[in-house]
Design goal:
homodimer, 43% helix, DNA-binding
DNA sequence: GTGAAAGCGCTAACAG
DNA sequence: CTGTTAGCGCTTTCAC
């Protein structure tokens, strides 16, 4: 039932080319009589003409779709990112086709393949981030990649992420300034971009303050809640438990909170807690959680802009943008009270 | 650089059709010599052939894309739904192009238009849900719609949602069974499908228990946190405040929690609280929140299945599925203690 | 000012 | 078992 240019051509008596020109060609390169335009436009709306982007894409070799791959859509972090990408992409007339790699390198690869088959104009990818060989395999000059959030150090594409080191440093310094010395870190998955940056930042802040970080105060091995729970339990069982904890991700912090509650320890009186990531509910926890907020929306927005720029100018030098996170002080950290 | 069927044809000496057949036609309707197949396949991989779905879509009038429109991707509810849709769609070789309507009827309409232009094979839509005229305007026999979560009562399309009434009844009954009589509801946006169902369920449960619901115990007017906060404050200021509160959505519950904390009331000792929606962090609140869990993943999955079925058999009778929510009892409700 | 025609990459009769 | 051909809906040179 969908009507095509030639339907309109037939109805109006004009040729397909003319119809195409008035309906799609914004440039007024063609001087077409106003009258003609009006006739064509009116018939088009009368017939409910809907341009066929598929045909257009085939012809122009441009689909005006961009592919997005994220590691976990159910994670508010990525969900928010995709939302901002969607908003920014729409502004430029782009649609987004979204894939969820489920933190799985194989599915990530499948997703890339699918998106390539769909002939997306470019790809925004928050990579799983452990391997990268499969990414190389799909590199092509035709379809630019932009990496989001999770980078590879040797990357040569456009990329935007957050300064994990800086955020971790800020968080740790906040703890130090509140008098804490025995500070533990609940880390995420070792070897990942985010975790490495956050641990490094933590160590830097400690070093700058002249505090030695004890090995047994660095615990944990993934970004999940259980890890936070177990790690915290472990810390509390020490003969010399930390007075403050820095969680490398919000799920970890949630687990820590559970463990602390179970031990009848109250935050921040007994133990101080800061976390990387600032999920929407952080202010509503008790106590409201002091957290490092990432500029997620900005990240999505910048990603789209980088991609658009590269599409416009494929030979421009790749840019690598590091956004600044921001420590949001709420009530989960209090000055250390030294036992009299 | 992308290579096409004709490239492979040239390389192998076979015709484009033969190449097409071995590369794409799963059906063995054509008896092609094994040897030929091998040659073609090997050249294809050697050249890094990536099928062009755009061209395919144009020819077959099937893009193998489905459009998704949700009201707010940053809402964990929709994010989870999209994730499950993505998973289910992938199983059948479908990609999803996602739009965020930002709870805005106009953007919703724009999104539909875009998706139609993209010639998606079908549409899954969690509609804003207030108006529906704009939806009608785009109804066409070519592109089936499936409604998710938010329905219109007079809808004639496939649809899957959750039994809001039942969930609200269960939650309210739980409160009643714990001895509560003065029960308030913090409602969401009046007139929406979700809110109407939830309020109705609440009233039913009260009626069934022979408890009169006082008008001033029905407060609030949207699904946001602030509404929950203000509503709760209002309730607490009454001469005869409720002993239990049912929040119609999780953001509302969060606001309620804030208000209660501010008033130094402790849940569940002083006030009991149940909420519709069970966001991932509910178990980690203090106290862990008793909540009505919606079968979100199942909803996405069913939505895709309905759409796929309709694509296969366009004339089948529309189905309207109501999924059962589940009350998850945690620690935010306690038996009412009557002052001695 | 407007039209004719070619072609984007693919599939599906139809033919042999 | 394989090739020829037409055409999906659109844009764009080139022509008049």
């Amino acid at each position: 039932m969908t009507c095509t240019l030639s339907d309109i051509a037939r109805q109006t008596g004009f040729s397909v080319s003319t119809v195409s020109r008035v309906l799609h060609d914004n440039s007024n390169r063609y001087k077409i009589r106003e009258e003609t335009k009006e006739v064509i436009r009116s018939v088009a709306t009368a017939l409910g003409y809907t341009p066929n982007k598929i045909a257009r894409g085939l012809r122009l070799n441009r689909t005006h779709q961009m592919g997005i791959i994220v590691a976990d859509l159910a994670n508010p972090f990525f969900a928010t990112m995709v939302k901002s990408i969607s908003k920014e992409a729409r502004k430029s007339g782009y649609s987004i086709v979204v894939c969820d790699s489920d933190e799985n390198t194989h599915l990530e690869e499948e997703s890339i393949k699918t998106l390539m088959e769909n002939r997306v104009d470019g790809l925004l990818i928050a990579a799983v981030g452990v391997e990268r060989e499969h990414l190389e395999r799909f590199r092509s000059d035709d379809v630019p990649f932009v990496f989001l959030d999770r980078l590879y150090d040797d990357i040569s594409d456009d990329a935007v992420s957050v300064d994990n080191r800086k955020g971790a440093r800020d968080a740790t310094e906040h703890l130090i300034q509140n008098g804490h010395r025995r500070i533990a870190i609940l880390q995420g998955l070792p070897g990942t971009y985010a975790n490495t940056g956050r641990v490094t930042g933590f160590r830097q802040a400690m070093a700058d303050a002249g505090i030695e970080v004890r090995d047994q105060y660095v615990v944990g091995d993934d970004f999940g809640t259980l890890n936070g729970f177990l790690g915290t339990k472990h810390l509390l069982r020490m003969e010399d438990p930390p007075t403050a904890i820095f969680a490398a991700g919000y799920l970890i912090a949630l687990g820590a909170l559970d463990a602390l509650r179970e031990e009848h320890l109250v935050v921040p009186r007994d133990v101080a807690l800061v976390t990387f990531d600032d999920p929407g509910f952080a202010p509503h926890l008790s106590p409201p959680l002091t957290a490092v907020e990432q500029p997620i929306e900005q990240m999505g927005e910048m990603g789209v802009k980088l991609l658009l720029r590269r599409l416009r100018d494929p030979s421009s030098a790749p840019r690598r943008i590091l956004l600044e996170p921001r420590l949001i002080v709420r009530e989960s950290v209090a000055p250390l009270v030294v036992p009299a």
